[in-house]
Design brief:
With 91 residues, the chain is mainly α. The protein is 81% helix and 0% strand. This is ElaB/YqjD/DUF883 family membrane-anchored ribosome-binding protein.
Length: 91
């Protein structure tokens, strides 16, 4: 599945980027919020997040494959509602 692999690659890129950013700062933001959090726990949380997002992407992909018309209509309705809420629907 190309979508799933792209998601995994994007998550790895974000994780690496956040790691470099935290190392370059004088006081990493995670240290202030959770000083007793070991690095292995943070790594485990990243893996859990990656797995959860992969499952969500897989489920969404399966739902769209099973019901393509409903997915397109749902996306259209959601877009129309968001457009109305943001004021773009005013004529």
């Amino acid at each position: 599945m190309p979508g799933r692999e792209n998601l995994h690659q994007e998550l790895r890129t974000l994780r690496d980027e956040l790691g470099r950013r935290a190392q370059s700062e004088a006081v990493p933001p995670m240290r202030e919020a959770a000083p007793d959090l070991p690095k292995s726990a943070a790594s485990g949380q990243w893996q859990e997040l990656e797995q959860a997002l992969s499952e969500i992407a897989d489920n969404a992909e399966e739902a769209v494959a099973k019901h393509p018309l409903a997915a397109v209509l749902g996306a259209f309705v959601l877009g129309a509602v968001i457009g109305r809420l943001t004021g773009r629907g005013k004529a």
